[in-house]
Write a structure and sequence with these properties.
Blueprint lengths: L1 H19 L1 H6 L10 E6 L4 E5 L4 E3 L5 E8 L4 E3 L5 E3 L11 E7 L5 E7 L4 E11 L6 E3 L2 E4 L1
Parallel strand pairs: 1-4, 3-11
Antiparallel strand pairs: 1-2, 4-8, 5-9, 6-9, 7-8, 9-10, 9-11
Length: 148
């Protein structure tokens, strides 16, 4: 019985190690789409937080512009029409910020899009601002996009 338990434990350890090796992760499909990140409002003990399902949002060097369309997944909140998604003018790395024109999409305030020039390598900050639809304090987050 002890040998069977030891074999099961050893087999489980090998399986878990395989899941964390870079070769395994690079070979599999990602569970999300960098062109369609999802944004959630999450309640902590005393504070509300914005959470993006990808941090950073990563793009390989593509040599072209792609549209990123964020979706806010809370019907009680909407993206601020002006500040919803806003690129930081100073890149964390790289010559210039690759995040271009940003604008609201749709009519319910749940979608916002920006252009990302994936030909510009580096890491770029942007801000997200969501506000309660019935009034109240907006929630903010400063995540990043990585190209290359």
């Amino acid at each position: 019985m002890k040998k069977i338990v030891l074999i099961c434990v050893a087999g489980s350890a090998v399986a878990l190690a395989a899941c964390t090796t870079p070769g395994f992760l690079l070979g599999g499909a990602t569970p999300f789409n960098p062109q369609h990140p999802q944004v959630y409002v999450v309640k902590g003990s005393h504070t509300l937080y914005l959470v993006v399902d990808q941090e950073p949002i990563v793009f390989p060097a593509y040599k072209g512009k792609v549209k990123i369309k964020w979706k806010l997944r809370d019907s009680d909140y909407e993206f601020d029409r002006v500040e919803g998604i806003k690129p930081d003018p100073k890149p964390l790395s790289g010559a210039r910020n690759a995040i271009g024109v940003c604008m609201p999409e749709g009519t319910d305030g749940s979608e916002f899009s920006c252009e990302n020039d994936t030909a510009v390598p580096g890491v770029f900050k942007y801000s997200i601002t969501a506000k309660p639809k019935k009034g109240g304090v907006p929630i903010k987050l400063d995540p990043t996009i990585a190209n290359g």
